[in-house]
Amino acid sequence: MPRLLAALLTCTASAVLASGAAFGIVAALEATPEPQNVPLVTFPDPPADRASGAPSPSAG
């Protein structure tokens, strides 16, 4: 009986410890601010459309 009681207490303590650690990790992750979404690469804006009377560069 004492071995069974020790095993039961060990399992209960490990389950409580694991769930406490999981809740602690989730709380720590929610407490940290989310980083800004800044792109690593930016591309220049395309040039504005030309007037319809100007020839296109591809016309030859």
Helix count, per DSSP?
1
Q: Calculate the terminal CA-CA distance, rounded to whole Å.
A: 97 Å
Q: Which spans have pLDDT < 50 for at least 5 consecutive residues?
A: none
Strand content: under 5%
Assembly status: single chain
Helical residue percent?
A: 40-55%
Q: What structural class should be given to the helix and strand makeup? A: mainly alpha
Number of strands: 0
The major sheet is characterized as: none
Protein name: SPW_0924 family protein
Organism: Streptomyces finlayi
Keywords: Signal
Region (Disordered): 36-60
Short description:
Helix content is 50%, strand content 0%. It has 1 helix and no strands.
Secondary-structure topology with pairs:
Elements: H1 2-31
List keywords for this structure.
single chain, 0% strand, mainly alpha, rod-shaped
What does this structure look like?
The longest helix has 30 residues, at 2-31. This protein is an all-alpha fold. The protein has one helix at residues 2-31. It has one helix and no strands.
